[in-house]
Each structure stands twice: as structure tokens, then as C-alpha cells.
Amino acid sequence: MKKNNIKELEEISKKIRCDILETMGIGKKSHLGGSMSAADLVTALYFYKMNHHSNNPNDPDRDRFILSKGHSVLSQYAALAESGYFSKSELKKTKTLGSILQGHPEIRTPGIEANTGSLGQGLSIGIGMAIGAKLDRRNYKVYVILGDGEIAEGQVWEAANTAAFYKLDNLVAIVDHNKLQAVGFLKERYDLGDIRGKFAAFGWKTFEIDGHNMQEILHALDAVDEIKGAPSVIIAHTIKGKGVSFAENNAAFHNAPLTKEQLEKAKNDILNS
């Protein structure tokens, strides 16, 4: 894939957000909040960092991406459509009977590497892929986006220990730290404390960024390439519902339908940002 520059990536991220809205449409309950908070991270991965090709989706040397917080898959569907894995017309069929695009990632969808959405499992899947790369002597990287609510799952920390033990420097975790769970703020529901410190204690190399600042995102993604002998994690501070004024930091839009008026307002917010 072409390495787009920052201004190009910022424009693509607007397209991704607009595609998320087109996918939702009117009156269809969907995960707006987490899809929007992850949009800039997903954009940077697909249109700057990852080695992937829609005309050769099974290339053994492709980088792998796992959206462990699978309920936010609308952001990934938008990136896959913009990358040419399937027609953008498919987006409006999401969550309909027979569609290749359902409410959580499935491997029958072109470009999807793993079924996710049962939270806490994506990092473990990524470890298997990263170990496979080492055994096969291939140089691809594995990127896993996790939700900050998701990492309350114990399996995540078992995986964190395992990745450090095997020195998986081809594994990159990205925590979408939007600080909101489905029904409220993280600190009020299950305070995880120092996320960066926890990963560091397991032996990970850690980075902390503004997850909506494209320059910071790219710098961190490039920096992890220099890490040897340990997995890396990027703690990305984000805003749930980013780009949509009435949805930002609003748990009500974790999983909710949009009215016609809300859809139009959301589009205007993004296009005029």
C-alpha cells in the first residue's frame, strides 16, 4: 500500500467516518461510539503502515490486523471497502440476512483475519499469528486493537505475559483508550488504573499518544519497528464518538440507532471538521 502523508490520511479518516455513517443508515442499531474512536487508528494502519493488497488478500507476507473489540467493526469495514476488498455498496447491507458484513468480524469477509467480538480473545489470536510468523521465518507484523473496557478480561493479561515470554517483537497491541464502556465511564465502572504501567510490568515496550493526532499515530507505528526482543503496545487516548458532536463522550451512542436528523447532523460535523 502507498504510504499516504498526514493530510491525505486525515482526509481518508473523514471518509472512513462518513462510511461508518452510511453503513449505519437510519434506525439501524450499531456501534457508533467505538467505531468513531478507532477510525484514525484504523486509517493509519490500512493506508500508511500495513503491508496488504486487496488484489492478493492471502499473501503469506501480508501484515495481519485483528480488531479484538469486534463490536467496532464498522471502522474496519469502511477501511476494507476504501481499500478495494469489496464494493462500497456492500456497506449498506451490513447486518442484513446473507450479507458478507455482519455485526462482528467474520473470516468469510474479504480482508478479515479472525472472528472476534467475544471480548478478550483477540490478543491471544494475534500471539498465535506472531509465533507462526517466527516459525515460518516471515517478516510480517501482527496488529491488534483492543478496547480499554475489554482489557478487564483476564485472558488479555495471560496473553500479555505470554507475548513477553516469547519476545514477540512482531506483535503490536493498540489500546483504544476512549475511557467509556457500554453504560458509562470506565473509572466509574471498573477503573483499570495505569494501563501503560501494567503492560510495562509484563515486559512490553510502551508508547502513549493522542489517538486522533495523525502525526503521533504514525510516529508510534514507525517507532515500534525499531523494537527488538519484546512486544509493543500503543496506548491511544481517544474520544468515544469522535467527530460527531452529540455522540462524543456519550455512552448512549455505544450501540444505538440514528434518526434522519442525527445522521445529517453527524455528516455535517465530520465534513466541516
Question: What would a concise description of this structure say?
Answer:
The protein is an alpha/beta fold.
Structural domains: how many: 1
Beta-strand portion reads: 5-15%
Strand segment count: 7
Distance between the termini: 26 Å
What is the global morphology?
globular
Mean pLDDT: 96
Report strand order across the widest sheet.
1-2-3-7-6
Count of separate DSSP helical elements: 9
Helix-strand string: HHEHHEHEEEHHEHEH
Which helices and strands appear, and what pairs or packs with what?
Elements: H1 6-24, H2 32-49, E1 64-67, H3 73-83, H4 122-135, E2 142-147, H5 154-165, E3 171-177, E4 180-181, E5 184-185, H6 186-189, H7 195-201, E6 205-210, H8 214-223, E7 232-237, H9 260-271
Parallel strand pairs: 1-2, 2-3, 3-7, 6-7
Antiparallel strand pairs: 4-5
